[in-house]
Amino acid sequence: MRVDATGVGTYDVSAGVALEKVSRHGYAALNFWLTHRFDRTITPSMGAAFRQSFGLRATVQAVGSYVFDSRAALALTATVLDEASASIDGVESPGSGLRLTTVGAAGVLPLRDAWRLQGFAFADVMIASFGRNEPAGVGLTASIVHVWM
Questions:
Q1: Containing structural domain, residue 31
Q2: Residue 74 to residues 87, 112, 130: CA-CA distances in angstroms?
Q3: Is residue 123 in a domain?
Q4: Where are the alpha helices (H) located in 63-143, listed in sequence order?
Q5: Which residues neighbour 84 within 8 Å (Cβ) at sequence distance 6 or greater?
Q6: Longest dimension (CA), the chain
Q7: Helix, coil or strand: residue 97
């Protein structure tokens, strides 16, 4: 398999569990899943081919939200991804594991019956124990949505 800058050249398989609780105004969810990434063989243009194996990845996501009588809503999210160390040709690469912790807040504001404004802001926690071998980022989205029903 040839790999380049568009991806890692492998396949993933995930399995997980989702727990949800809904009340009149509230919603809470806790999701957990494991991901296995299959090995890949890398053949550099110069040098010998080698086999890379990835560690098992665990992800936990928590969501809590509140819907107001006006149908406006606010939500908070937190996601932690943790992946064990990878190996090259069967030899573990210490320190190659990944960790990324992301927190966010979302909101929905009804404008009219079929229109709403919604947005989401997130940030990766930039404290050493919350992240490892992953670039940190922040983001903000905003959209106006029209619903046809």
A1: 12-146
A2: 42, 18, 25
A3: yes
A4: none
A5: 55, 56, 57, 97
A6: 65
A7: coil
> Letter for the amino acid at 113?
D
* pTM for the structure as a whole: 0.81
CA nearest to 53, candidates 44, 34, 40 = 40
Domain membership of residue 120 (yes or no) is yes
Provide the domain count of the chain: 1
Question: 88-110, pLDDT tens digit by residue?
Answer: 998 999 989 999 999 999 999 99
Instruction: For residue 21, give both structure tokens.
Output: 């609780």
The residues near 2 (Cβ < 8 Å, ≥ 6 apart) are 9, 43
Q: How many angstroms separate the Cα of 18 from the Cα of each of 32, 101, 105?
A: 6, 19, 20
Q: Does residue 1 lie within any of the structural domains?
A: no
Q: What is the dihedral of CA 5, 140, 25, 116, to 10 degrees?
A: -110
Quick check: is 32 in a domain?
A: yes
Dist. CA 44–CA 141, nearest whole Å: 39
**Tell me: the pLDDT tens digits for 122-148?**
999 999 889 999 889 999 999 999 988
Query: How far is the CA of 53 from the CAs of 8, 12, 38, 70, 87, in angstroms?
Result: 11, 12, 7, 51, 5
Average pLDDT, the chain: 91
